[in-house]
Amino acid sequence: MEARIDELEAKLVFAEDLLEELNKTIYRQQQQIDLLQKEVRELRKQVAASTPNEPHSLRDEIPPHY
Description:
By secondary structure, this protein is mostly helical. It is 74% helix and 0% strand. The chain has a domain at 18-47.
């Protein structure tokens, strides 16, 4: 019975360590996701600011050699 309890305690310690590592990984990933979302928002603002609001004609896209 004592050996079984020791084995369960060892498994519990391992599970707690694994859970802590997973929590750290998720935290780091969430930080990266937040940073990437911020960068995407900033890029969208840059694109919106650089594109004209007037309608775009396909004739404007004809290469000059035609």
